[in-house]
Design a protein that fits this description.
It comes from Dreissena polymorpha. InterPro entries: MetI-like. The chain is mostly helical. It contains three helices and no strands. The longest helix has 30 residues.
């Protein structure tokens, strides 16, 4: 459980650095910055739950198809976030 928490914290710091880089690259407005920070906070709260679910699926040796479905849903969420950023940035 402790390693899942530290992994979530490391991923949060990585996403925060990525956000700062995107802000410098795209010169986004303050409103978009607040929107992205709220989205990052939501992902921070959601990420440990997804990691625990994935860990439980691996430990209980449930069908690999369920893990693939979770990965596809995560990729779709990331793509939607990128599309929203592009639309807002204009």
């Amino acid at each position: 459980m402790d390693s899942v928490t530290s992994l979530g914290r490391d991923l949060f710091l990585y996403l925060l650095l990525l956000l700062v880089f995107l802000l410098l690259l795209l010169r986004l407005s303050l409103l978009l910055l607040l929107l992205l920070l709220l989205l990052l906070l939501f992902l921070l709260l959601l990420l440990p739950l997804l990691l625990l679910l994935l860990l439980l699926l691996i430990i209980s040796n449930i069908n690999i198809i369920i893990i693939i479905i979770i990965a596809i849903i995560t990729i779709i969420i990331i793509i939607i976030i990128i599309i929203i950023i592009i639309i807002i940035n204009g």
